[in-house]
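Figure 2 data, in text form.
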Amino acid sequence: MKKTVIYNIALTAAVCIASVHNAFCQSAINPAVDFHSFRKSEQDKLVRLVTMKQADDPEKVARQREFDVTYYGLDITVDPGTETIYGAVLIKARSEIDSLVSVVLDLDNNLTLSGVSGSNVDSYNHENNLLTIYFTGSYHFGQTFDIDVNYSGKPRSSGFGSFVFGKRQGSNEPLIWTLSEPFYARTWWPCKDLPEDKADSAGIAITVPENLTAVSNGLLTNIFNNGDGSKTFFWHEKYPITTYLISLAVSEYEYTVDYFHYSQTDSMPVEFYITPEKSAGAFGSSSGLPQTADMLEVFSALFGPYPFLDEKYAQVEFGWGGGMEHQTATSLYITSSGASDYLVAHELAHQWWGDMVTCRDWHHIWLNEGFATYAEGLYLEARDGKPTLNSYMQSIKKPIGYWGSLYRENIDNLWDIFSNTVYDKGAWVLHMLRYVVGDDTFFDILRTYASDPFLAYGTAVTEDFQAVCEAVHGESLDWFFSEWVYGVGRPYYKYSWTSMWVEDSYNVTVEIDQVQDGIIFTMPLEIYIQGLDKTEMFKAINNEVHQEYTFIVDIEPISVTLDDSGKVLKKVELISGGADTDPNVTPDLFTLYQNYPNPFNPKTTIKFQTKIPAYVTVKIYSIQGQEIKTLLTRQVTPGPYLLRWDGTNSAGVPVAGGIYFVRMTADSFDDVKKMVLIR
């Protein structure tokens, strides 16, 4: 690490004379708006199948689309002793219809309201985990309004945690954290809990006992000592942010900082907030944390600049057994030896894919998780070479395939949203897209996607990404997305091959059947034909139930394999392979067949077959027994062979018409066939 400073940030707080409330409200009134591994441990632990019908309730979603949130200001007091929070949330919004008379917010019934006020607020109703606020009049399209909600209570822990009053490992000291993905921000603050609506900015003020540190999104703008044994940490996220990415983490953290030098004169802090029990070993040789700045360099080169360069990238210890890509403040489970490079790379990549460009709804969650999973492999490729990427892709390939389509039909529970399909098949789809369009085009696609003015710091669905892919690639990719994103399964190729020697080359015939249930996939397949000291590769489009291909090679085939480098997600099975046989003949160890045509002019074909390796000689003789020409003399492997004789002698001079003989010898085998040349 280039520079490391360790200290307890809780002991370095500046004292501010102004009141917390006044300072917070000032920030809220004038928000700065600059822009309009492993897997998560849901794969490693038993996931509670939490049904949250409101997350996709069409009536609620329709009501919430009547207004657009532009700013959230959270003022949260955390009391570890009673495990209670006291909240005051300012919401600034804009009407999206001509006559807005009420708004619907998400807020868990477990929290108790103490008041709702704001622009023309008349009354409110809090039931069924919804807070409905009624206005005295109506707001027309484009008009703005403010709502202030005050509440308190002990948040109900849902989903992957949502809000947890936990303890540091081996200690009774607090480790308090949030994880709101996918739809659990509502369990600890009132909001429009849909990923499609990003607030243009957010302020997060967190009041905690003075020995603790509170970490959140964006920049730390101030720390107020309240003079009553508590401090308030003021964080401000000036970039657009969706609700599930707003977070807090509270503990007695030790603070470490490195720097990402993104130009010769500019750098960004790379921050670490780790509890004392873990900080000593967190940066050891087996940890991915010291590689963070290198990962930032790799991903910036591949995807475009880190999206929040004038803020920070922080990694904060929390108590859940995985990681969560909270915007600019990733939460990580830290062990005594740090965190794996897979986990660190995965959550960092989310700052582009998930945070800057966010899936518009949970049906398209692969745009977050598939991208971050593939980024793990991309970092390994940049660090250790392409074979490492290939090994990584094979490691995330499920032998039995993946359940359901990449587009998630059912988003009522966590298991359906966060399945292996989303992570691993999502990564495979990107890997195959790279194969289809080529490396240069693929990375142009990623950089274009990240910089698209309609998507950057906004939201996207699969069709948005597909449109970028097609614009950069210059061709339609509908066949690819319809099969791999919306289709189910993967191709199951059964294939066989035969070879036949013809004059001075081999004809290799490969037959491929797709035998999986469901759709027939269209994919380019690399077909490798291996000889003793040379391998030739051919690329063929496979898009039918049964297809046959013939390739001409100058090597004697030993084996034929499909997609040997593993670029296609598939199951493959070799049914048979080797030299061709004549189904109408049961040969002995050696067979010399009658030439054809016979009589002939000017050429004839001579076929022979062996069942064992042997040294074979094939020669042409005149009726007087004079040797005219040697057609073959060499060691051969078992199989059929075709030779051509064009009626010339060894000097290439045409011979006279008449009777000739072809003689084949191999080991103790010796056979002769009569031929007639007509001139």
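Caption note: The mean pLDDT is 90.
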